[in-house]
Amino acid sequence: MGNKTKSFTIGFLIGGIAAGAYTLLNTPKSGKQLRFDARRSAENWKEQLEEIKHEARELAQQIQHTSKESMQSIKDVAAELQVSVEEWRQSVAPHQKKIQKELAAIEKSMKELEEMSQPPSSQPYS
Description:
This protein has helices spanning 3-26, 31-117. The chain is an all-alpha fold. Helix 1 (3-26) packs antiparallel against helix 2. The mean pLDDT is 83.
């Protein structure tokens, strides 16, 4: 049981006890009627407490189930992502090599153009 649920349950019980004590002390009923009402009130509180416990257990089970499903979904998505990334790498690898070759060819052409665009060295006239 979580901390909040435990605190709520304790507060709920203390409030019920306090309300019962107040009712016992401030009710102008006969002792027999008062005991009957107190017993009935205690039974109602007990039923409500059992219902709260049952709902808390169901909630905990739902949270646990949802957590397991979420973890499995995350694992599935991660595995699919790894496969996709690897497929992408394999499909890009040949193109990457081709691009590197083309860049080397462009650099070579640029050097040749630079060499061609430089004026010939001046030779002294004889």
